Amino acid sequence: MKRNHLNRRDFLKGAASAAAVSTLPVTTVELAFADPAKSFSFAYISDSHIQHVKGDQFVNNWDRGLIRAVAETNMLRPKPDFVMFGGDLAQLGTKAELDHGAEMLAKLNYPTHCLLGEHDYYLDLGEYWSELYGPHWYSFDHKGVHFVVLNSILTHDEWTFERWPTPEQRMLEMAGLDNPNGSPFMVGEKQRAWLATDLEGVAKTTPVVVFSHSPIQKIYKGWNFWTDDAEQVQALLAPFNDATVIYGHVHQIQYNQIGNISFHAVMATAWPWPYPQSYAQAETYLPKLTVPMNRADPFHERDATGWQFINLETGRVAMTYQLNNNTDRTVAYNRETGRPEDTTFQSPESRISPQIHY
Ligand SMILES: [Fe+2]
Ligand SMILES: [Fe+2]
Q: How far is the CA of 101 from the centre of ligand 1 (A)?
């Protein structure tokens, strides 16, 4: 155990010096806000999938992804105000995995908020996670922005409580893609009622940013890139001038605009998922606005993984993907077109004629 600690510290030292020469989004920061009091940024790390092997052994690749993201986030200047962790800290929700992941996250030099992914949840229904991180859903205010943290990976009570002989089997059934025994994710009636009450006290001109694990939109049901009651949650956000949803779970770049609501997915630190259409040959509702991520080298273990730096200028998100082994990308809200756009790759056609497939 002791040896592990030493190794990790040594690695962090190495990662820190590597990060010092890498490209951090300094220009984005320098060009920030007219009113410095309202200006801030935060970082987003997600989907680490820390996986226990046996004893004190964990899958090294997944450990390395999270360690690198934490080290690079700690190097950001100016400093982000806080870090959000977007769920799937663990692979199979065990105490060993959650503790090991929490130990790595604890090295962040900033206040850190966490949300639940299905891999954290379906073993003990978030009981141990709660001991580490508190309530399953909550909200907080920061410099004039209202942040809402949802647990979007709930499902039907019958599936959760009655169908499986053991918690371990329930966890494994929910962990798979293309599993006919799975069940669609949802926020659920109880949480939606809480959200409605929470938002009642928020002025419609206040920017609202929602953090969820699954997309609060419908992309592809077979992989649960999907939230069954997405429209009902969207309806609660509809009255706000500036609403944004940031989600994990899909391990790939996606963005969309539905009415007033902007959507941004974040990368995983563990591995990338392919786009469903290219892999499962299935119909998906990947927003046509999205310029897919480029995987320069699919055989490189860290390719198409990464973490995010987020600038909240005027209440809308400018998300810079810090891509390991790939060129960083920024997807920022464009006030002229009224939607998020990739600052480099968005085609002129999609600027003129939005094809929001939803
Ligand atoms: Fe994940
Ligand atoms: Fe997930």
A: 14
Dihedral sign from CA coordinates of 173, 177, 183, 187: positive
The alpha carbon of 165 and the centre of ligand 1 are apart by a number of angstroms equal to 24
Joined tokens for residue 262 = 């902007």
List, for residues 170-207, the tens digit of each pLDDT value. Answer: 999 999 888 899 999 999 999 999 999 999 999 999 99
ω before 272 within 30° of 0 (cis)?
no
Give distance in angstroms: CA of 331 to centre of ligand 2.
Answer: 22
- How distant is the alpha carbon of residue 128 from its chain centre? 21
Average pLDDT, the chain: 87
What are the CA-CA distances from residue 216 to residues 235, 241, 249 (Å)? Answer: 11, 18, 11
Q: How far is the CA of 63 from the centre of ligand 2 (A)?
A: 17
Q: Give the span between the Cα atoms of 230 and 258, in whole angstroms.
A: 11
Give me ligand 2 centre to Cα 154, in Å: 12
Read off the pTM: 0.87
Question: Which residues are in the CB-under-5-Å shell of ion ligand 1?
Answer: 47, 88
Q: Could you give the domains of the chain?
A: 2-18+27-352 (3.60.21.10)
